[in-house]
Design brief:
438 residues; alpha/beta; Protein-Tyrosine Phosphatase, Chain A; 8-stranded mixed β-sheet; globular
Length: 438
């Protein structure tokens, strides 16, 4: 029988990473009762700072990053909690965009482990999961660093997400479309009801450009809970040229910028940020993996986490612009979780790519196999389609086996794929923290 870890046995990051990886096998227990228990044992640190809570099918990470950039530009100390990470586990928990260090993760896990063990001893189902550990770390870290605001991104859905123990100044819902249907429901209205689970009585709600049926559900729930609704379309209109600009590429990012700006207006009495400061921050926001262009291995590498059908539409917009402006078609590396997502992404890639390299996303049981991906490439695609492995394409730091010098290489599909390739390309010694993805 395996020994039960103790704080003493969690001596370094390697042992802590192994322990946290083991927590993934507890499985996801949907509902927030377990997180409420953990937070209460810790003294409810999430109540020590104002919160902006951000949910949405797409755009929630970008909106969270924009909000953080604006608050920080206004001189506020910011906490940013997002998931998943790209390369470093500590990216999930940041104060003023400084990520949690490995030593800090070790210290927090040593502190949390006895609390988790006690909860699990009373009821095995109450032992916190990996995501709940990370959420608790964020709450503790933000409270102890005395942040002026915590921007908390929902992990999955909203109503049953571990982050939903917060009482926010404002709830933000960026977008709603079909994704995670096996968990959240198979209609936009059903998914909207799950996302709107973050709406708290009497607290304002900001919504992006939602489908009509989704917006109706959110407004219904807001009305029942006595909340005012602030909608991007009502304030800014539907013309993209009327929306705030941002350095993040794509018209959809301007919708995200409008959503963030509207949320800043709603909370400005408590957390003042001027319009000019916010717009300046949006012009310089840093959010990796969203049409991120890097010069690596003599190539222009483009990393874009277009991981679902709505994301595929945004990818199409950016690819069309890229091909039009540069006259180049990128060589694409594609790995996806789930056939429905792959069926939306691969036709877009085929429309603009020179070649397509299909790979399996490592460490992810939901990853599409090569046999599943190949038939989803449209028959009319005339370029080369290759099935390969990451070991073959990215064998070591700074080495890329896709395309040639001065070519463009697109990496798209799962955000986990992006992180894995970044780790391989950019680090002499791989960090291998992709196993901690949830």
């Amino acid at each position: 029988m395996a020994s039960i870890p103790t704080p003493h046995s969690l001596a370094d990051y390697v042992s802590v990473r192994h322990y946290l990886y083991g927590l993934k096998h507890h499985g996801a227990k949907f509902g927030i009762d377990r997180m409420r228990l953990l937070a209460a044992r810790l003294g409810d640190p999430q109540r020590c700072f104002p919160v902006v809570h951000v949910a949405g099918t797409n755009g929630k990470g970008s909106v969270a990053a924009m909000l953080e950039a604006a608050f920080r530009a206004a001189g506020l100390c910011t906490g940013l909690y997002t998931s998943p990470h790209l390369v470093h586990q500590g990216e999930r928990v940041q104060v003023n965009r400084a990520r949690l260090t490995e030593d800090e993760i070790v210290a927090y896990v040593r502190e949390l482990q006895p609390v988790a063990a006690a909860l699990g001893a009373a009821d095995p189902d109450d032992h916190p999961s990996f995501f709940e550990f990370m959420t608790a770390m964020a709450f503790l870290h933000f409270a102890r660093r005395e942040v002026d605001v915590g921007i908390i991104e929902v992990g999955l859905g909203g109503r049953l997400d571990a982050t939903n123990v917060v009482q926010p100044l404002v709830s933000v819902i960026t977008s709603i479309s079909l994704d995670h249907t096996e968990v959240l429901g198979d209609t936009v209205a059903m998914i909207a009801r799950e996302k709107a689970g973050i709406v708290k009585p009497g607290r304002p709600v900001v919504i992006g450009a939602l489908p009509d049926d989704a917006e109706a559900v959110v407004r219904e729930i807001a009305r029942e809970r006595g909340c005012t609704v602030h909608a991007v379309r009502e304030v800014f209109g539907s013309d993209v040229e009327s929306l705030p600009e941002t350095n993040l590429s794509g018209d959809f990012q301007r919708v995200n910028a409008a959503t963030a700006l509207l949320a800043l207006r709603v909370v400005r009495e408590r957390l003042p940020v001027t319009e000019s400061v916010a717009r300046g921050a949006f012009a310089n926001v840093d959010w990796p993996g969203r049409w991120q262009r890097l010069a690596v291995a003599g190539r222009e590498m483009i990393f874009d986490a277009a991981h679902n059908p709505e994301g595929a539409q945004c990818l199409a917009e950016n690819l069309a612009r890229f091909v039009r402006l540069t006259g180049r078609r990128p060589h694409a590396v594609v790995g996806v979780l789930g056939k429905a997502r792959a069926a939306a992404i691969l036709p877009v890639v085929a429309r603009y790519a020179e070649t397509i390299h299909l790979v399996e996303v490592p460490h992810q049981p939901r990853a599409c196999s090569l046999a599943e991906l190949r038939p989803l490439v449209p028959e009319e695609f005339t370029g080369t389609v290759a099935t390969s492995s990451l070991d073959a394409l990215f064998p070591s730091a700074g080495v890329c086996g896709v395309g040639g010098v001065n070519d463009a290489v697109l990496v798209t599909g799962s955000i986990y794929l992006l992180g894995e390739i970044m780790d391989r390309l950019l680090h002499e010694k791989r960090l291998e923290q992709g196993r901690l993805q949830d």
